UniProtKB/TrEMBL annotation:
The keyword Repressor does not apply. This is Putative hydrolase. It comes from Rosa chinensis (China rose). It is an enzyme of class 3 (hydrolase). It holds the Pfam family IU_nuc_hydro.
Amino acid sequence: MLLQKHFSWGVLVVLVVVIGGSLQTVVEGRPRRILLDTDVDTDDFFALLYLLKLNRSEFQLEAVTVNANAWTNSGHAVNHIYDLLYMMGRDDVAVGVGGEGGMLEDGTILPNVGGYLPLIEQGTTTAGGCRYRQAIPVGPGGRLDIDTNFGIRKAFLPQGSRRYSPFRQPTAQQVMIDKISAGPKITVIVIGAHTNFAIFLMNNPHLKKNVEHIYVMGVV
């Protein structure tokens, strides 16, 4: 029942993108570029798998960025994504990690969090003082279940050569800037907390014109 609950929303948003975008993609004769921002909860895990199974001549996943302000720890989340990409033959997809934080209580924006912050904050705290994250249980029924995705990764996923690398892991902001500025226009799907993309928009308003559509399922 819990797995079924986690399965639904991320997959639903991806289905909306596919159904809504397929006609326009065929007419334009080029694949729809996609950037997925996720907190790698279990529903997002299946949504990513669905995206990877789509015809690449119509839908081209180019990047995945991880939001760490929710139910998962960044290192585990990145490794989940790397393993799934390896299984699907998509080691070309860029993966960036957001820090546990991003905006301070006084409104200060941390423009490029990620990379090293998750190494410090793999335990029970959060660098950004996020009360939502602090309220999530650490053990069973909380982050432990999501970090392991209920045993799915260990039981089923092959492991490639890419692994989470503290201090060297590309940040979510770096990946977003690179992919969104590259053109042509890109579709952004946000299926976790909105921190990564909010920081991107506030710091790079000149790149908003490169975003064709934004699909959002998530939390405040």
